[in-house]
Amino acid sequence: MAPVRLPADAELPLLRTRVSDLADRALVVGDPARAARVAERLDGATRLAANREYHVYGGTYRGVPVTVASHGVGAAGAAVCFEELARGGVARIIRSGTAGGMQPEVVDGAIVVATGAVRADGVSHQLVPTEFPAIATPELTVALKQAAAATGLDVHSGVVLTGDMFYPSEVITGVDLRMWQRAGVVAVEMEAAALFVIASLHGIESAGVFAIDGNPLAAKDEAMDGYDPYREVVTRAVDGSLAAALDVLVA
To answer: What pLDDT, in 10s, does the model give residues 9-29?
Structure first.
């Protein structure tokens, strides 16, 4: 079945944006407030729509038209955003978000560029078989690593884990983070696998870059009691990952 493409005069049902207002390159973030911050970096920025967690902006960056959209928390809701952008004709989507480090050296303030994602989410398994890989576009991944390194921050790259659970349960263990750490996974987040799978199904480019805001496998953080993503060290990493994402988006 060929990917769905909507006509230019159509309105995306949940993003509430007209297809004709979309650029062919989109930066996606979880937080609507972060989307507004990104829009401040654009020339001629306009808020195109705001519906539920989906806030959409348009403008130009270095003379190139771009779309910025927020997708909320979790793969299921984010998949709606990714799918509608793809149906609207967007050809390149980069996700810039936050993640938890999974290796001892991947700590607060670092940047991780995803090469692919472990599909421990709930939505991608309803789109493709379990064996289907969630892979970022290699050329974008290489470019993101170079752009992130230019920020002067500590940069790592590798497979990330996409899961649905944020706070751990005392009843069942959920995803075995220790096992995935032993497998070499570098970070854990909640949306990348859905993006990479949906982009593959539509034949478009995708990539992910993440600011590390903690390490859930550190002894003090396993219960998430001390989680605080609003520290200055995290803010610097967020700004660096956004700058790298915008640079590669328009390259």
So the answer is: 999 999 999 999 999 999 999
